Each structure stands twice: as structure tokens, then as C-alpha cells.
Automatic annotation (TrEMBL):
It is found in: Cytoplasm, Cytoskeleton. Its main location: cytoplasm. Keywords: Coiled coil, Cytoplasm, Cytoskeleton, Microtubule. This is Uncharacterized protein. GO terms for molecular function: microtubule binding. GO terms for cellular component: microtubule. Belongs to the MAP65/ASE1 family. GO terms for biological process: microtubule cytoskeleton organization. Residues 96-187 form a coiled coil.
């Protein structure tokens, strides 16, 4: 029956055997007695075994660390790929002849994915910043503020296109409101000209930006105030017309 010696028990003994033969010869030449030789050789074997065990433990820890880094790298690759819609993971097919080569391949792929993720996040940020700006102008930014906290959860191209469609809708809404503001201001201009009032003084009280045609405020609040002012001016106009009619009737009756 064959007995296979363990690596720890056999390998260091084979290494130490050569050293033992060499130093045994030296001791023989020196005239050391057998007891001293045996005690010294036992110490040498013990030291060899301790060194060997320490090296095995160091190698095992190194291997475990490599495996851990590889696993963490692959997990991050999977997470980034998932957040970007799964279209960005293109394995180079190289595992590596050893763990160090495999870790190097994983690191290269991970760095490339991180770069792509950063670029994608910048594109998302640009769109979300525009969404926030427009939504503030329109007076409704609550829903878009929530996107800032969740933008890393879904970085897919599908999500990006969805945000761009929402941005186009807001841009269209702003254009419509700008047209409505201009229409209301034209109406106010006519009413003020009839009454001889200063239009700028009136609209500055609603919102200062209405005086500057380049930075119109288009919030619903401003539009409602313009509507209300037009209604009030028309009411005053009707009252004056009624007074004039009443006065004309009174004159005819004289």
C-alpha cells in the first residue's frame, strides 16, 4: 500500500535533507559528538518546517485575496452592466492562465466600464439639469428632484431616451406658455393704451421679468395674475363705458 506524505510533512524534509547532509559533514570534520549533531539537526528541521508553513500560509492568503478581488471586480462589472441596461458588458473571453492574469483582465474590463458609466452619468446629468431648470420655470419641479437620488439605479439608454422625451415635452410646454404670455401682454397693452396707464408699472408688479422680453416668467402663477389683471381692467373699462352711457342717457333726457 502506497502512503502519500502531505506536502507540509514531506517537502520541507526533502529540502532540509540536503542541508543536513552538508552540515553533518562539517560537524564530522569538527569532531562534534552524535548527541549534539542530532539535537542540532532536529532544530534545523523544526525551523525548516516553520518557514515552510509560514510560506504556505502567505501563499494561501495571497491566493484568497486574488480570488476575492476577482469576485469583487466581476460583481461590480455585473452591477454596472445591469444599471446600463446590460448592453455594455463585452467579455474579452480571456480568463487568464493564472489568477494574476485573470485579475488583470478583470481590472481592465472594469476600468473601461467605469469610464463608460461616468460618461453615461454625465449625459443623464445634463438632461436632468435641463429638466430641473425647465420645471422650476414652469413651477413644477417635485417629480424631477426625485430623479437625482435614483439616477444611478437605471442608466440604460432606454431611460435616457425617456428623460429626453420628457424634456422635449417641457420645452414644448414652455414655448406654449411664452406664446400665452405674449398674447396676454398684447391684450394688456391695448387696455393700458385706452386708459392711458403705464404697462411696465403694472406688469412689473406681477413679475419683474415680464419687462424683459428675453427672460419671461412662464409659471402658472404669473399667467393667472395676468389673466386676473386683464379681467380687472376689462371690468373697469365696462364700468366706465356704463357710466358714459348713463351720462349720455341723462343728457338726452334733459
Amino acid at each position: 500500500m502506497w502512503i502519500v506524505a502531505s506536502p507540509i510533512a514531506g517537502f520541507p524534509r526533502r529540502i532540509c535533507l540536503l542541508k543536513r547532509l552538508f552540515i553533518y559533514e562539517i560537524w564530522s570534520e569538527m569532531g562534534e559528538n552524535e548527541d549534539e549533531k542530532d539535537a542540532a539537526l532536529a532544530d534545523i528541521e523544526k525551523e525548516c518546517l516553520l518557514v515552510y508553513k509560514r510560506k504556505v500560509e502567505e501563499a494561501s492568503r495571497c491566493k484568497a485575496n486574488l480570488l476575492k478581488e476577482i469576485a469583487m471586480g466581476r460583481a461590480e462589472i455585473a452591477a454596472i452592466g445591469s444599471s446600463m441596461g446590460g448592453q455594455e458588458i463585452h467579455s474579452n473571453g480571456r480568463v487568464g492562465e493564472n489568477l494574476k492574469e485573470e485579475l488583470e483582465n478583470v481590472t481592465v474590463q472594469l476600468e473601461e466600464l467605469r469610464r463608460k458609466k461616468s460618461e453615461r452619468m454625465n449625459r443623464f446629468k445634463e438632461v436632468i439639469d435641463e429638466l430641473l431648470s425647465l420645471s422650476f420655470q414652469l413651477g413644477d419641479s417635485t417629480d424631477y428632484l426625485k430623479m437625482l437620488g435614483a439616477e444611478e439605479a437605471d442608466l440604460s439608454l432606454h431611460k435616457l431616451e425617456e428623460l429626453r422625451r420628457q424634456l422635449a415635452q417641457l420645452q414644448n410646454e414652455k414655448s406654449k406658455r411664452l406664446e400665452e404670455v405674449e398674447r396676454l401682454l398684447e391684450t394688456l397693452t391695448l387696455l393700458c393704451s385706452v386708459r392711458g396707464e403705464d404697462l411696465k408699472d403694472l406688469i412689473r408688479g406681477i413679475h419683474p421679468s415680464l419687462v424683459d422680453s428675453n427672460t419671461r416668467d412662464v409659471s402658472r402663477s404669473t399667467l393667472d395674475k395676468l389673466d386676473l389683471m386683464i379681467g380687472n381692467l376689462r371690468g373697469v373699462k365696462l364700468q366706465r363705458m356704463q357710466k358714459i352711457q348713463d351720462l349720455a342717457v341723462s343728457l338726452l333726457e334733459l
